[in-house]
Amino acid sequence: MGKKNRTSIKNHQLYQLTWTQFLETVREPEVLFWGMLFPVLISIGLGLAFTQTSESRYQVMTVGANHPELDALLRQYGQPGEYRGQDAILWKVTDATLGNTEFNFVHSEWPAAIIALKRGEADVIVSGSPDGLHYHFDPHNSQAQLVYMKLSALIQSPVAAADPGQTSVAPLTLKGVRYIDFLIPGLITFGMMGSIMWGISYTIIERRSQKLLRRMVATPMKKSNFLMALMFVRILMNLVEALIIFFCAWLIFDIRIQGNVAALLMLFLSGNVAFTGLAILVSSRTSRTEVGTGWINAVQMPMTLLSGIFFSYHNFPEWSLGVIRLLPLTAVTDGVRSVFNEGAGWMECLTPSVALSAFGLICFIAGMRWFKWY
Hints:
Largest sheet: 6 strands, mixed
Strand content: 5-15%
């Protein structure tokens, strides 16, 4: 009977700690804004910025006066326009298959054109000489390469480029091939990691620096219950945040989940467990917020850059891919993205879910072992 009562008290203690932590979180408007609304606004902003439209616009700076062939074509096909307060000539090319293209030509001096190129205000600089036209751009910039190929083909044969006729190109209309389909799952997992790392790690460090953990541990409180209460609240907040992001993405960009929703939920929970364990391990010793902020950024920033949130990590060298795939953010992002875009189910999500849960459990145990309450 005594053992049964003690078990009931422990369960009741975990509930009270969770409920208290939840109230502390939701009663702070700033926490709700930065933790839930701000990631949604970022997702919408990035989605609007990077979603492909049916019309591509490119800025071309022309310098010098030795390009009579280009000037003649602009007089024939161009129309007056304006770009950043300067007179410009617009050359619009219609293509029902690949989408319309609009070239914005602005005449400028060489120093001003170089500055525009450095600032990203121009894609290509075109200069003329008795030998013909010269194209100046960063050879490692894929968009500048595309502008060069399109523009050079258009100048060489404007009629053929503007009216390609029969083409063998078959544009894909499948769900999951747009950049926004790639981006939204990454933003969901990125928000999950940030919420847990800052919401748990920084909270623990701040309370330790204010001597609050010393007071709490002096009470008849089970230490693991306190840490699990933090985890439960963050899982709930992350779930609400992910639902809001998905709802807005579905409403604005028509994002769909093509795989098993239950498997996605399993992967989501295992990712929360992994990041919770990591957050507790990171915050297990230090009592200075400045040091804690450095540790959080040291853990979070490399994963943000390497784990394929905003661009594919396959752009990195081949020798580094094996290490990148071992990162917890990479595992959860690849899994969530496979459910969203590839129709993945239980079998595809089982291995990363088990690996993430095991990683989180190991970090949690290590963090509890090294944890300094005061």
